[in-house]
TrEMBL record:
Gene3D superfamilies the record matches: Flavocytochrome C3, Chain A (1.10.1130.10)
Annotated compartments: Cell envelope
Keyword Chloroplast: no
Annotated Gene Ontology cellular component terms: cell envelope
Name the record gives this protein: Tetrahaem cytochrome domain-containing protein
Length: 116
């Protein structure tokens, strides 16, 4: 546990460095916090031992069908794919978003908040 806490603390420093280098509210977590979310909403109450958020965390607020409807122009729709993987594989929250499918497919998804 101590080791994990140390890793989390060093990641925290890394994250602080990242966010001061980038413009404010560049990353998903910043934009969520700006909308009133607390760190704990995604990471659980103990920020010394933060939970790694998974798809269930996201689906507490986001409805998959609603998101798929809003993004119906995407072909195929990553929110309605035979194997879409966790939301956070693409929608990273503390770094630029990535097109995770690209590892195997050539879908031309443009992540709005991806690397510029
Ligand atoms: C406590 C509620 C809540 C949780 C939990 C949450 N979100 Fe959000 N999210 C919102 C709200 C509110 C918005 C703004 C309205 C909208 O776009 O749906 C938003 C917007 C977004 C957007 C639109 C782009 C942007 O950032 O402006 C993405 C992508 C997103 N969330 C992904 C995620 C992912 C991935 C997770 C899980 C790690 C997550 N959200 C967890 C409430 C939440
Ligand atoms: C293949 C990567 C990928 C995965 C996995 C993925 N998305 Fe997305 N998502 C996108 C793309 C591409 C867009 C459209 C461009 C953008 O908004 O960045 C998008 C848009 C969104 C939006 C904004 C919709 C709008 O226009 O208001 C939300 C909210 C969102 N996704 C939530 C989720 C949630 C929740 C999950 C997990 C259930 C998820 N996404 C999984 C790629 C992905
Ligand atoms: C919308 C959900 C969301 C919010 C809000 C959020 N995070 Fe995160 N956090 C994530 C996700 C998802 C990851 C996994 C890596 C990534 O996506 O960048 C993560 C990773 C981390 C990690 C790395 C720890 C690990 O388990 O690997 C730390 C530390 C962290 N976040 C701290 C914070 C702090 C501090 C805040 C409040 C300022 C915050 N987070 C707000 C979703 C969130
Ligand atoms: C590790 C490799 C891998 C990743 C990552 C991956 N796929 Fe696939 N995908 C495959 C393989 C292999 C097939 C063909 C076998 C099958 O149909 O199951 C396939 C088939 C598909 C198909 C049906 C056939 C087609 O090409 O139209 C869709 C749609 C699809 N994937 C969407 C996605 C989406 C969206 C993502 C990202 C969220 C993704 N995949 C990520 C390997 C991958």
């Amino acid at each position: 546990m101590m080791r994990f806490a140390a890793i989390a603390a060093s990641l925290c420093l890394g994250l602080a460095a990242l966010s001061s280098a980038a413009t404010a509210a560049d990353f998903g977590a910043d934009r969520h916090v700006a909308r009133g979310l607390k760190c704990e909403t995604c990471h659980g109450p103990d920020m010394k031992n933060p939970n790694y958020p998974d798809e269930k965390t996201c689906l507490a607020c986001h409805n998959r069908d609603d998101v798929a409807a809003k993004t119906k122009a995407l072909e195929p729709n990553p929110h309605k794919a035979p194997h879409n993987g966790d939301c956070t594989l693409c929608h990273m929250q503390h770094e630029p978003e990535v097109n995770y499918c690209e590892q195997c497919h050539q879908f031309n998804f443009k992540m709005k908040n991806g690397a510029k």
